[in-house]
């Protein structure tokens, strides 16, 4: 599975949550990607960071509790001296990046935290805030299976790198690097 869970205590990604599982797994770097605020074209509310989300009348779309993006968002709010209760949020969280982009695109929300690629897909503006590492979590025994090795081999091709660049906000230079091994 893909995983991008910030450990606020260390600023690292994925290893603490996976190590706590005690399972025989491997974390493989998939990509580093830009996380930030997805806003309307032209950024009409002049949003420059999470502190600006407290502005009167500004509506924020959240992700579901426990989602990597939501954990990061709450961490960024805390660093800015804010909490979720300080914001006007939509009643229902976005379940994925597409739903978040759609909420901003449809004018239901003024901002939400997501990846640059989602903003680009919806022709929205993006306020960069953070680089996160997204890893693949694979059982150790499956790492050497032909299907996983074929995926990793494809992820090292120029075509894969070109597609990542086309999507925007992805750095695939470290793709395939073993980040953590349970053994």
Give an overview in words.
The protein is of the alpha+beta class and 183 residues long. The chain is built from seven helices and ten strands. Strands 1, 4, 5, 6, 7, 8, 9 and 10 form an eight-stranded mixed beta sheet that branches. β2 (6-7) and β3 (12-13) form a beta hairpin. The protein is globular and about 55 Å long. The mean pLDDT is 97.
Short structural summary:
The chain is of the alpha+beta class and 183 residues long. It is 30% helix and 28% strand. Helix 2 links the parallel strand 5 and strand 6.
Key structural traits:
10 strands; 28% strand; 183 residues; two-stranded antiparallel sheet; alpha+beta; eight-stranded mixed sheet; 30% helix
Oligomer: single chain
Helix content: 25-40%
Order of helices and strands: EEEHEEHEHEHEHHHEE
Gyration radius from CA atoms, angstroms? 17 Å
Proportion of beta-strand residues: 25-35%
Largest sheet geometry: 8 strands, mixed
Q: What low-confidence regions span 5 or more consecutive residues with pLDDT below 50?
A: none
What is the strand tally?
10
